[in-house]
User: What shape does this take?
Amino acid sequence: MAAPKAFNATRGDKIFDVANIVFMSLVLIVTLYPFLNVLAISLNESSDTVKGGITILPRVFTFENYQQIFQYEGLIRGLWVSILRTVIGTLFGLVSASMLAYTLSRPDFQARKFTSTFLVVTMYVSGGLIPVYILFRDLDLLGTFWVYVLPTVVNAFNVIVIRSFMDGLPYALQESAKLDGANDLTIYWKIILPLCKPVLATIALFLAVGQWNSWFDTYLYNGRHPEWTTLQYELMKVLQSTQQGGSGQQINANDMAQKMTQISPESIKMAITIVVTVPILIVYPFLQKYFVSGMTLGAVKS
Assistant: This one.
């Protein structure tokens, strides 16, 4: 048997390959440069940072900026609260959204259409900021940790996304399980959830990023309760203190400004930005492998 002939690339193919490599390289540079620039400034000596001209490598390498930041106890406390709300908020959101989505995906659920329509309406109609604040006050959620978790337990968009994925699963799996004596809770926990890993990983990332980056709810509901401050809220105060010279009582950042006068405002902003960004960058690769659908392909042949 004769060996297959080698593929001879035409001139047009070579030009396309070169253009594709150049284009993707430019995209990579544009994507990575802002992060590398922030990292370089955060690792550069503050007295040298004010001169400007730093690109992707620090001129005078130092960890002083990070050491100064973590001397401020508000950031450490905010970091732990942010981690706690991210973990608990993500778990609660996943469980509640998946359970409701499973109920709505059942063809025998009589109120399926009405409940789905009601959820969609909540995505377009809101009570407004003041009614929500009054509601949280009447529920005694102000000044507590649960004001971060309970209001986001059920998200209409997440429920619809998970339900759409469940609708694509073979219903014969549930029927077979029922014939074997499994109840609805067993079917949900041992059959549906394992098959929904891709969509659950996606929703988990959405929830985790939303919880981690949120600061406005801290400003509204826990601004007077420093024990429940978050890292993002402390970052906001740092940014405002650097822009206003640290002299505004409305942001309660006087102590922070006094502790950070020895480093430049630019170093403060960049170092804290890295501290806030790195945890999400660490988590993302572990969830990326689940961003592929079709795990039930061939599971049931009808």
